[in-house]
Amino acid sequence: MPAKDKTVNVAMIGQGFMGRSHSNAWGQVSRFFNSPHKAVMHSVFGQADENPAAFATRWGWQNFSTDWPALVASPEIDLVDVVTPNKMHADVAQAALEAGKAVACEKPLAMSLADARAMAQLAKKKKANTYVWWVYRRCPAVALAYQLMRSGKLGRIFHVRAVYLQDWAGESVPLLWRFDKKIAGSGAHGDLNAHIIDMARFLTGQEVTEISGAISETFIKERTIPTAGAAGGIAAGSQGAAAKGKVTVDDAVLFLARMSGGAVASFEATRFATGNQNRNRLEINGSKGSLIFDFERMNELQFYDATAERAVQGWTNIMCTHGGSHPYADAWWPDAHLIGYEHTFTNMAADILRVQAGQEPVVPLSDFQDAYETQRVLEAALLSAKERCAVKISAVK
């Protein structure tokens, strides 16, 4: 429901890498966007040893708390933003829903399919506004791709090729929480494949109907016990002792899939693709054309128009920075004055505020039910890898 007095009081649960990204977004959104409602950075939660007071001061939160149940229940809060490690998503989100709040949750939605289902069902029961931070939808290039596909520019879709490649998880990286199934739920699969599954569903408008085959691998079986966590980003500055512990998540997962509109798809996520820092790349081939997006060149979209005269057919590189022509671009800078990763969060915060005010987002947002469908695909791929067989999504309840 729209918040009172044209403000949305936000409580953020969690800190860390995502906490910085979300704090920046909530602090910037009403400066750059003519938002129908203003975001108020009301309170942030952190564990006592995280020093939430210092975090609040640095990032502009008005208050801080070490008691998240009390915070999400506070009548002063309109929207709860969940940026904790995955193991806390379900508990925090469900408590916020029970308290009548709108909820924005980091991805993947939950540790397990059962938790994701419960979250989606409760959101439906409460008729609550829910949002999941698939921020790559908010790259102007991806939003433009969505608009082009909905206008029929690609025709019938034949192929989806999706990869998310990183290379930060070498042997020297200690046993951070991302390598612990009890905290993370899964490894590269839930962290990275989740994004490209969402992107494929979002852009094509098709659902994954079958996992035709999958493989999962953990390359580094043991890692040193951390003595210092990451100083920034994912693993930078982390240190380990001599003692080692077992890695309980995947390092890489690859799978093949069929989609509801007849397209076939391939997905690959890994933290060991040396030389690829954050290559979230999607290629879609259709009867009338093709698209390529690569996050390492996030301001650009490649488009091939197969309906053009054959003599001039070729890949066009579109710089998606022109206000008035490209989604979100009018909020930012002049042509080719590039935006970055942090702007995707601000673009999403702007769309959340639009929906909170009863307006339409620039391109569709994902809610808990939508993210649950992505979680089903994640679950089916792991089952396919374990059983070494095809798995129909309809069998994954």
Descriptive tags:
17 strands, 10 helices, single chain, 6-stranded parallel sheet, alpha/beta, 9-stranded mixed sheet, Dihydrodipicolinate Reductase, domain 2, 2 domains, 26% strand, 31% helix, Rossmann fold, 397 residues
Textual characterization of the structure:
This protein is α/β, with parallel strands linked by helices and 397 residues long. 31% of the residues lie in helices and 26% in strands. The protein has 2 domains: 133 residues, Rossmann fold; 209 residues, Dihydrodipicolinate Reductase, domain 2. A 9-stranded mixed beta sheet has the order 16-15-14-13-7-12-11-8-17. The radius of gyration is 21 Å and the shape is globular.
- The residue-averaged pLDDT reads 95
List the uncertain runs. none
Main sheet overview = 9 strands, mixed
How many domains is the backbone divided into? Answer: 2
Highest-level CATH class of the largest domain = Alpha Beta
Radius of gyration: 21 Å
Q: What's the total count of β strands?
A: 17
Helix/strand class: alpha/beta
> Helical proportion?
25-40%
Strand content: 25-35%
